[in-house]
Design goal:
single chain, mainly alpha, 17 helices, globular
Length: about 450
């Protein structure tokens, strides 16, 4: 039986509706992990380090897609809840067209800035050239990547989360197969990995584009769009937290790399790369749940259904708490196998990665609450609060921790790099406190 945004959501129905988006995000992260596996094992440690070194800059360039996806879908869901389907379709089309134009401009900007940025961050020699080789091709696919991220949110709002999962799996399988072909069999190195990536992004872009451009059974269809500067500003405001999250995470990633070069050398950057791949898989479950739940929250907010809002918040908190505890145990159990998978060929790097895992795993106890809290306020069309939570979580707290904790550890006779691994745990715990403060403070305003 089809689940609609207007339904009453029990635990079972909420999990059924969000499961495709959870699967979609986990699968997206897994095929990113496959990239790292092939580069590390078939191209080498320097190339693997270069990919992880330049990736934060590339993610900054693609962050616009997350902003329009989250902020735009929140506005569209609210508009659907108000019963204005015509305007919802016009807004949907406008966001896609604007994003495509911005994607081309940003891709050109990325190509121009690629070498100067990589050099400024500390890359040199073979690692610098690898950063440029990989980043140039990835930049060409930025328009596809941005629209792919938007469609993942819009398809859930259109009540088609299962179809979104199908398209994501198709993109992921494309990436995995081409990685095996280009990197594993043909030996094309970093260029092969980057071609595999942008090919998968094109599949993730073209499949939903064709679907929405034709007559379909969803709530949305791509068609004529009326310029609405007010809606664009509102979508940007709503999605500012997601924009801030991705930019902040990328900036902090650059800072982590710089600190690790200082305290642990290139092997520290490689170990951090492994942690990031695993981190993507684990937090993608929280992100997927938040993306899947957001249109439901936005719809019932637009329909002024406070009873359902209260239920959605309470159920979500219990689901996230249960998942968080399970994830810590799973992360600790998988620490050795995952480290072996990526860097088993280097005993020193393997030992460093396993040690980092032990500290880093406890961050999953806290990260889900702040991720959901930010998404919750985005769905309520309160972009500023959502942005504050994301800004503090991903930039302020992590920056302060990654700069200060290595000094504290060394001053106490410990290892500076241990402070870097632990900094994410401290930052996520502080973000939970801020999230709870906002949820309590805004209860009367939104009546949840």
């Amino acid at each position: 039986m089809k689940i609609q945004l207007s339904d009453h959501f029990t635990y079972k129905k909420l999990l059924r509706f969000t499961l495709p988006s959870i699967g979609m995000m986990i699968f997206t992260s897994i095929y990113g992990v496959v990239d790292g596996f092939f580069v590390s094992n078939f191209v080498g440690e320097t190339a693997f380090t270069a990919v992880n070194f330049i990736m934060p800059f590339l993610m900054i360039l693609g962050a616009i897609g997350f902003m329009f996806g989250a902020g735009g879908s929140a506005l569209i869901a609210k508009t659907l809840g108000e019963g204005d389907h015509k305007r919802a379709n016009s807004l949907f089309s406008l966001f896609i067209y604007i994003s495509l134009a911005l994607g081309v401009i940003i891709a050109i900007l990325g190509i121009v800035l690629l070498r100067p940025i990589a050099s400024l961050l500390g890359a040199e020699g073979a690692m610098l050239e690898s950063c440029v080789d990989y980043g140039f091709i990835i930049s060409l696919g930025l328009p596809f990547f941005m629209i792919q991220m938007e469609f993942q949110s819009f398809m859930i709002t259109a009540e088609k989360p299962q179809l979104s999962l199908v398209f994501t799996v198709a993109a992921g399988v494309t990436n995995i197969v081409l990685d095996a072909l280009f990197v594993g069999l043909l030996g094309w190195g970093l260029e092969g990995a980057s071609f595999a990536t942008i090919s998968s992004q094109f599949v993730g872009f073209i499949c939903p584009l064709v679907y929405f451009a034709r007559r379909n059974s969803s709530l949305l269809r791509l068609g004529k769009a009326k310029m609405d500067f007010g809606a664009l500003v509102k979508a940007c405001t709503n999605g500012s937290s997601e924009l801030m999250t991705n930019i902040s995470m990328s900036l902090v990633g650059m800072l982590y790399n710089a600190q690790l070069l200082k305290y642990a050398g290139e092997q520290g950057v490689a170990a951090y790369g492994v942690l990031m791949y695993v981190n993507f898989i684990f937090i993608s479950a929280f992100i997927g749940y938040s993306i899947g739940c957001a249109p439901v929250i936005g719809y019932h907010y637009g329909a002024k259904n406070s009873t359902e809002l209260k239920g959605l918040l309470r159920k979500s908190m219990i689901i996230i708490l249960t998942a968080s505890v399970a994830m810590v145990g799973l992360a600790l159990a998988l620490s050795v196998p995952m480290a072996m998978l990526f860097v088993g060929y280097n005993p020193t790097l393997l030992a460093l990665t396993k040690r980092a895992f032990i500290f880093y795993s406890f961050s999953f106890l806290f990260s889900g609450f702040a991720i959901f809290g930010s998404s919750f306020f985005t769905a309520l069309n309160n972009g500023p609060v959502s942005a504050i939570i994301s800004f503090l979580r991903t930039l302020v707290f992590q920056t302060a921790a990654v700069v200060s904790l290595p000094l504290v550890f060394e001053a106490c006779g410990g290892i500076g790099s241990d402070g870097i691994w632990l900094s994410i745990v401290v930052a996520e715990a502080l973000a939970v406190i801020v999230t709870l403060i906002f949820i309590i403070a805004k209860r009367k305003k939104y009546n949840y």
